[in-house]
Each structure stands twice: as structure tokens, then as C-alpha cells.
């Protein structure tokens, strides 16, 4: 009887320990890049490649002495893009204009702009 | 069509118009239930509402997890819209608190100019309400623990802590229902009963909704929909749960303790 009792206790203890050991093995979360698909994944890949502005949405710094032959290049994935020119550094307003593919355009302040083709992300 | 912007233009979805029609029907059926005890239509419309919600959120889960439309900007906008939603909910509850203080700080002659009104036997704040408070605070602690485990890549521990939170939320709803069933006053007993059951009842509904959000987070976590940088559902559920938690603390303080 003593043997039976102690064997029962020992077996129960062993099973408990075994179960706890299995449960305490942690499972990692899915890798963010593996889980992401579509546009989100392309965005993440662009960021991994060092491009934190894949949609070209941030302001670009313009060259002050641009001419018709060497205009400021505006990236766009389409035929036309709206451009806002901050003509001088202290200007409090933005001059908006349409910029079309193929022809450089001049803001009234004198800065030249030209559309360049870039590949779209989406 | 090629596109080069982070914003997500949704396709034509039937859910907004169906949801609005359903809500109109639900409100009419609630009036029918309250005035004429016609319960069946309300149950049907409520089940309809739940079904529409399930299908709508199914679409959103497909768009975010399986189609990858929720980019960085979309995630920021979702977070800000949740902040706006929680602020509007906060002001919703502020209106109830306003009513409560208006009636309790200078009680009117109709309720004997005392608060609580004459012949109203209020709850003992050291009994079930205190247990409720401890349950909710502990659940808030556990949801934070779950998030911490999640961010430190402990999947099972995060699941366990989240499950504890859900169970505590259900326990809260259960003992709140028990308390309602054993109360000595009803919603028809003067301004006290009205504002008490309105506020705590709306808080209870918010706890139920928060529990459902946490259950959905739990299921999605179990199905590996969440990654370290994209678990908006989980995060927003946590915000909502903390909000409900804080509202309960104020309810406990003013409705139970300081009267």
C-alpha cells in the first residue's frame, strides 16, 4: 500500500512536471515582415531599404538658382501633380500650381519645376 | 489603376446603409418594447445588428490583415479616431455625472431635500461594489501585463493574461447583474433610481462591449493576426478597457461611496 501510494504520488508529480515543462515553452509572435502583405509589406520593405518616404509626400528642398534647363525635379507616378512652391524662405503662404508631364513650368517667383517619372509603390 | 499614396480608398460597402436602416428599426422596436411590451421585434433587430457588425468587422479584418491596406498613416488615423471616440464617450458619461450632481448637491423639494431621497435604501459600498472595483482594477492590471508580454514576444503568457482579463470582465458583468436583481430600488424610484440605473447600466453595456472587443483580440491573437508592429485591434481594445475602468472608479466614488 505504501508503495502504491508513493508510486501514485510520484507519477502524478512527474506528469505535472512534464506538462508544466511543455507549457512553459514559449512560442514567438509572427515576424512583422512575414505577416504583412500588400501595400503594408511594400512600405515596410521600402523602409528596410532606407526609404522612409516611399510615396514622395514630404517636402523637397529646392535649388534656389534653377533654370529652364536645370529645373527642380518633382517625383510623380502620374501624368500631372499639384506642386506648392514656397517662393521665399519666410513666406507664410504656398503658391499652388499644376505641373504636367513633359514640360517644365515656372512659378511666378522664378523657380523652375519639372516632373520626373518614378515607379508607384501601390 | 496605379496608385501612389498611403491612404485606403474603400470599395463600395453595403454595411453603412444597412447598419443605419437597422439602427432606425432597432430604435423603433425599442419604443415598441418599452411602451407596448412587444419584445420579439427588438430581439430580431438586435440579432440583426450583431450580424451586421460581425460582417463589417470581418471585412475590416480582411482589408487589414489579409490584404495589407492598413499602412503606417492608416494606423495613425485609426488611433486618432479611437482617441476621438473615447473623448466623445467621456463626454457622454460627463452628461450623466452632471445630472447626478445637479440632483444630488441641492436635492429638490420633491425628494424631501435629502440625498439619497427618502425611503431609498442604497447599496452598501463595502460589499459588491467594492468587489466590482477590485475586479476591474485587477483586470486593468492584467491587460497591461498582457500587452507587456506581447511586446516582449511572450505569446502564451500574453494569451493567459488576456484570458484572465476577459474572465474578470465577464465576472464583473455577472455580479453587476446579481446586484441589479437584488437591489431595493428600481429605475422608476425617483431621480435617484433613474440616474443610478442609467449611469451604471450604460457603464455595464460599455463593459460588455469592451469584453467583446477583448474576446475578438484574443481570437485574432490565437490565429496569429497580430505582429509586434501591427496589433491595432489589441491596442485600441486596451485603451477602451482602461477608459471603462476609469469611468467605473468615478461611478464608485460618487454613486456608491460619497452619497
Walkthrough of the structure:
- Chain A is an alpha+beta fold and 122 residues long.
- Chain A folds into two domains: 22-54, no CATH class; 57-122, Sandwich (Cytochrome C Oxidase, Chain F), CATH 2.60.11.
- Chain A is built from three helices and five strands; from the N terminus they run αααβββββ.
- Chain A has helices at residues 2-23, 32-35, 38-48, and strands at residues 72-76, 80-85, 95-100, 105-106, 112-117.
- In chain A, strands 1-5-4 form a three-stranded mixed sheet, with no helix packed on it. Chain A has a two-stranded antiparallel sheet with strand order 2-3.
- The radius of gyration of chain A is 31 Å and the shape is rod-shaped.
- Chain B has 259 residues and is mostly helical.
- Chain B contains seven helices and no strands.
- In chain B, helix 1 packs antiparallel against helix 2 (40-66) and helix 3 (72-105) runs parallel beside helix 7 (232-257).
- The longest helix of chain B has 34 residues, at 72-105.
- Chain B is globular and about 70 Å long.
- The model of chain B has no long low-confidence stretch (mean pLDDT 93).
- Classes of the chains: A alpha+beta (122), B mainly alpha (259).
- Chain A binds chain B through residues 23, 26-32, 34-41, 43, 55-57, 76-78, 118, 120-122, and chain B through 2-6, 65-72, 150, 153-157, 224-230.
- Chain A: Keywords: Metal-binding, Zinc.
- Chain A: Zn(2+) binds at residues 85, 87, 107, 109.
- Chain A: One of its GO terms (biological process) is mitochondrial electron transport, cytochrome c to oxygen.
- Chain A: One of its GO terms (molecular function) is metal ion binding.
Amino acid at each position: 500500500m505504501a508503495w502504491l501510494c508513493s508510486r501514485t504520488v510520484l507519477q502524478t508529480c512527474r506528469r505535472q512536471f512534464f506538462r508544466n515543462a511543455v507549457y512553459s515553452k514559449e512560442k514567438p509572435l509572427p515576424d512583422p515582415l512575414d505577416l504583412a502583405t500588400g501595400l503594408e509589406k511594400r512600405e515596410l520593405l521600402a523602409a528596410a531599404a532606407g526609404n522612409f518616404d516611399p510615396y514622395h509626400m514630404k517636402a523637397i528642398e529646392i535649388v534656389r538658382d534653377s533654370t529652364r534647363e536645370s529645373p527642380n525635379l518633382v517625383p510623380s507616378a502620374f501624368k500631372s501633380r499639384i506642386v506648392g512652391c514656397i517662393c521665399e524662405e519666410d513666406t507664410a503662404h504656398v503658391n499652388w500650381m499644376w505641373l504636367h508631364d513633359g514640360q517644365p513650368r515656372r512659378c511666378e517667383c522664378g523657380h523652375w519645376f519639372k516632373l520626373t517619372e518614378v515607379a508607384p509603390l501601390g | 489603376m496605379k496608385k501612389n499614396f498611403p491612404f485606403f480608398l474603400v470599395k463600395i460597402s453595403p454595411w453603412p446603409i444597412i447598419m443605419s436602416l437597422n439602427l432606425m428599426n432597432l430604435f423603433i422596436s425599442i419604443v415598441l418594447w418599452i411602451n407596448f411590451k412587444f419584445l420579439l421585434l427588438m430581439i430580431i433587430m438586435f440579432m440583426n445588428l450583431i450580424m451586421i457588425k460581425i460582417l463589417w468587422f470581418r471585412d475590416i479584418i480582411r482589408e487589414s490583415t489579409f490584404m495589407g491596406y492598413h499602412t503606417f498613416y492608416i494606423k495613425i488615423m485609426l488611433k486618432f479616431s479611437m482617441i476621438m471616440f473615447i473623448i466623445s464617450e467621456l463626454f457622454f458619461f460627463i452628461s450623466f455625472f452632471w445630472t447626478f450632481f445637479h440632483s444630488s448637491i441641492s436635492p429638490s423639494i420633491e425628494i424631501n431635500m435629502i440625498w439619497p431621497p427618502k425611503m431609498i435604501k442604497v447599496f452598501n459600498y463595502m460589499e459588491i461594489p467594492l468587489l466590482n472595483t477590485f475586479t476591474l482594477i485587477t483586470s486593468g492590471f492584467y491587460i497591461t501585463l498582457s500587452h507587456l508580454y506581447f511586446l516582449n514576444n511572450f505569446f502564451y503568457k500574453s494569451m493567459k493574461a488576456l484570458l484572465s482579463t476577459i474572465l474578470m470582465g465577464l465576472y464583473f458583468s455577472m455580479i453587476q447583474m446579481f446586484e441589479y436583481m437584488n437591489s431595493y430600488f428600481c429605475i422608476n424610484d425617483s431621480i435617484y433610481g433613474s440616474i443610478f440605473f442609467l449611469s451604471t447600466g450604460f457603464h455595464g453595456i460599455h463593459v460588455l462591449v469592451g469584453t467583446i472587443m477583448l474576446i475578438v483580440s484574443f481570437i485574432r491573437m490565437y490565429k496569429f493576426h497580430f505582429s509586434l508592429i501591427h496589433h491595432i485591434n489589441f491596442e485600441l481594445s486596451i485603451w477602451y478597457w482602461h477608459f471603462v475602468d476609469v469611468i467605473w472608479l468615478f461611478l464608485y466614488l460618487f454613486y456608491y461611496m460619497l452619497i
